[in-house]
Amino acid sequence: MTPHAGPVLELREVSRVHGQGETAVHALRGLSLAVTTGELVAVMGPSGSGKSTLLHLAGGLDSPTVGEVLVEGQDLGTLSKAAVAGLRRRSIGYVFQDFNLIPALTAVENVALPLELDGVPSRRARKEATQALAEVGVKELAGRFPDDMSGGQQQRVAIARALVGDRRLVLADEPTGALDSETGEAVMRLLRARIDAGAAGLLVTHEARHAGWADRIVFLRDGRAVDDTGYASDAESLLEESR
Ligand SMILES: Nc1ncnc2c1ncn2[C@@H]1O[C@H](COP(=O)(O)OP(=O)(O)O)[C@@H](O)[C@H]1O
Ligand SMILES: [Mg+2]
Fold first, then answer.
1. Domain contains 26
2. Hey, which of 6, 9, 36, 106 has its CA 20 to 30 A from 197?
3. Rounded to the nearest whole angstrom, what is the distance from the C-alpha of residue 227 to the centroid of ligand 2?
4. How many domains does the chain have?
5. Can you tell me which atom of ligand 1 is nearest the CA of 204?
6. CA 212 to ligand 2 centroid distance, Å
7. 3 is a domain residue
8. Is the residue at 174 inside a domain?
9. Reduced to 3 states, what is the DSSP secondary structure of residue 155?
10. 177 CB near ligand 1 (under 6 Å)
């Protein structure tokens, strides 16, 4: 498949409202964002500012109330559920804060799962999974179950699972949250290497040190993108600034 020429991820004026009327929660308000190949964008902001909502929308796990989300040029809103699921398995890697490994499967089985679900023959899926584990430096854990691994080891396996195959979009929601600082740095290095090798990434983080690995930072507040002083980074305020 030839890669799509435009941004890997694009959000156009996206809003997400949970609930209705007086109890409605505006998780995102008119957010636009584009991330291209080779680019890692950090997402920062206080708790409840919409960071996870943004990643859910980018990963096709949730749909916007208003606006469009495009992955590799395809508007997710125009695709069938099955097509979105297929795109998710093939093109999108998701790293969660709490690893989300399946306890009943070994490391290599966890990593091979998205490939097998996508119809890749079992032998080939295992081979690619073993290679992905080797790339994140935990090949020797292939036969081990999540409960018998440290947090850092589980997170590396989770990253291998997010990177296995030819994923063009990597979404990581506080992937270093539960890790000591040394392991956290190692995880960031892996993520950066993968982006440099030809993917696009969104990284939610609270740590400026980790955001330092990104090409740019999007700050969210109350579901809006703001600049690092906390003011709305819309055209009007930018114009104001340039005067
Ligand atoms: N499924 C949901 N139902 C109702 N409100 C939600 C739901 N998911 C998120 N929210 C609300 O949307 C806002 C943004 O949440 P979230 O994206 O999780 O923020 P963050 O990841 O930055 O902490 C919060 O006010 C949260 O309570
Ligand atoms: Mg969150």
1. yes
2. 106
3. 19
4. 1
5. 21
6. 19
7. no
8. yes
9. helix
10. no
Q: Per the structure block, which two tokens stand in for 225? A: 């993108």
Between β-strands 40-44 and 66-71, what pairing exists: parallel, antiparallel or unpaired? unpaired
Mutation to probe ligand 1, out of 11, 14, 22, 25 (largest number of atoms < 8 A from CB): 25
Q: How far is the CA of 27 from the centre of ligand 1 (A)?
A: 6
Is 2 within a domain?
A: no
The whole-model pTM stands at: 0.88
- Which domain CATH number covers 54? 3.40.50.300
> Which residue has the least CA distance to atom 6 on ligand 1?
18
Question: In angstroms, rounded to a whole number, what is the distance separating the alpha carbons of residues 147 and 1?
Answer: 37
**Percent of the chain residues past pLDDT 90, beyond the cut:** 69
Backbone angles phi, psi at 209, to 5 degrees: -60, -40
Instruction: Note down the domain range covering 212.
Output: 9-242
- Is 177 exposed, middle or buried (CB count within 10 Å of its CB: 0-12, 13-18, 19+)? middle
234 to each of 35, 70, 97, 162, how far by Cα in Å? 18, 21, 30, 33
